[in-house]
Design brief:
The chain is mainly beta. It contains 1 helix and 8 strands. It has one helix spanning 3-20; strands at 33-41, 46-56, 59-68, 71-82, 85-92, 100-107, 110-117, 125-131. An 8-stranded antiparallel barrel has the order 1-2-3-4-5-6-7-8. A hairpin with a 7-residue loop joins strand 7 (110-117) and strand 8 (125-131). Residues 1-12 and 14-26 have low confidence and may be disordered.
Length: 132
């Protein structure tokens, strides 16, 4: 992890997570486990996503992998649960790739919503739907 990314995470993530968990982030639903589905970016590229989460109260973390015609990528995730909404930040293992933040809503055992790159010069966004 680059020094700049480390400093950014140390400074920004607590504020993002605190803002998202306002109003009580506890949940009776357990988000732990493997989630799979698809992601489509603003350029029309489709990818198969696998996200493996662990949960501690309203905090989630884990790993992710994306497989598409562009290749296989992956890394770590950090996020927070607030009722049926989950905000997850995806941090690629490859330092030249952009991290992105997804705001997902749970409906049964499916999470779906939008994502956008952050802390990056590229302007990438799209939708993601994962289920278990």
């Amino acid at each position: 992890m680059t020094m700049l990314r480390t400093v950014f995470l140390a400074l920004a993530l607590p504020f993002v997570l605190a803002a998202c968990s306002t109003g009580g982030g506890s949940t009776a639903y357990d988000y732990s486990g493997a989630w799979t589905g698809t992601r489509e970016d603003s350029r029309g590229f489709l990818a198969t996503e696998t996200v493996t989460l662990t949960q501690d109260g309203s905090d989630v973390g884990g790993t992710w992998q994306s497989v598409s015609s562009e290749g296989t990528f992956g890394g770590t995730v950090l996020g927070v649960v607030n009722g049926n909404e989950v905000v997850i930040e995806f941090f690629p293992s490859q330092v030249n790739l952009c991290p992105f933040r997804a705001v997902l809503t749970r409906n049964g055992d499916t999470l779906s919503g939008t994502y956008a790159a952050f802390n990056c010069t590229a302007s990438l966004s799209g939708t993601i739907t994962i289920s278990r």
